[in-house]
Amino acid sequence: MSRFEKRTIGDATLIALQDSWATLPPTAFFGAVEEAAWDPYRDLLEDDGKMVLNIGSWLVRSKGQTILVDTGIGGRPVQMPLHDPPALPSVMRAAGVEPEEIDVVLFSHLHYDHTGWNTTEQEGVNKPLFPNARHLVQESEWQHWTNTAKSRQAARYDDVLAPLEQANLLDLIDGEHDITSELVGIPTPGHTPGHMSFVLGTGNERVYILGDAAHHAVQITEPTWSPNADVDPVLSAETRAALFERIANEDALIASGHFTFPGLGRARRNGSKLQFETIASDGSTAS
Ligand SMILES: [Zn+2]
């Protein structure tokens, strides 16, 4: 199976890139949700009852810029039981993009499964993998993960963040931010304090790149289901509900790096609730 999938969004191109993927018990990931509450949603789980957690990034070509949204879990050892070795750099190359071509790296937030390939180790030194890219993150997010020794350790600061700072590749932004005339970053706090999602496209077709505003398709129907990983589970639930209402009202597309790959779909109305409906990509041949 191909680990990249392309879709055209108006004048722009969006490519789903799979770094790796895991499966885990849903009650372990959503600790506050009872096992029985999953009964109406068994079709969203695997045959063995586990949920898929894809580890994905997005490549955007917009207005002459080559943009990477999040950098995967990276090549260093992690605790997550991954089904495939993380391979974002080779998946990007298979999709026709060299790391040196990336003009902008956007971070939805700074959890380690979104910053892993910021650097690779060369002769014992962590070097930026995207040396020609400006790396954009919300200032509040940066402060949250760099203020204390404990948070720096959680964010693997020395390995994946400090080298960006040292190479002067880091730009801190505040609030809504235009990346190109058809790509904007919007604050979607809750999962982390400075969490950001991205809206690509204008007019008829637009797509919301969620980041970790949601992790599983079930949350489109059950936006109050906040995973253990949400720093503020009440705020994340409010953010999620508002975001999916907006997406449904605009009939926009959803792009999620954690939903089952490639993670593209819509929020369809079903009575008073919303429901995730997957859509096909244009195919896996990138140009
Ligand atoms: Zn994540």
Number of domains: 1
Portion in helices: 10-25%
Q: Which CATH top level class fits?
A: Alpha Beta
Radius of gyration: 18 Å
Q: State the distance separating the first and last CA atoms.
A: 19 Å
The named CATH superfamily: Ribonuclease Z/Hydroxyacylglutathione hydrolase-like
Largest beta-sheet characterization: 7 strands, mixed
- CATH architecture grouping: 4-Layer Sandwich
Q: Please state the average pLDDT score.
A: 95
Question: What small-molecule ligands were found?
Answer: zinc ion
* Helix count, DSSP H or I runs of 4 or more residues: 7
Helix-strand topology string: EEHEEHEEEEHHHEEEEEHHEEE
Shape: globular
Strand content: 25-35%
Q: What would the keywords be for this entry?
A:
single chain; 287 residues; alpha+beta; Metallo-beta-lactamase, Chain A; 7-stranded mixed beta sheet; 16 strands; binds zinc ion
Commentary on this structure:
With 287 residues, this protein is of the alpha+beta class. It contains seven helices and 16 strands. The chain has helices at residues 26-29, 88-94, 139-146, 149-154, 157-166, 218-221, 233-250, and strands at residues 4-9, 12-24, 51-62, 65-69, 104-106, 119-122, 125-128, 134-138, 170-173, 177-180, 183-187, 196-200, 207-209, 253-255, 264-270, 273-278. Zinc ion binds next to loops. Zinc ion is lined by residues 111, 113-114, 212, 258.
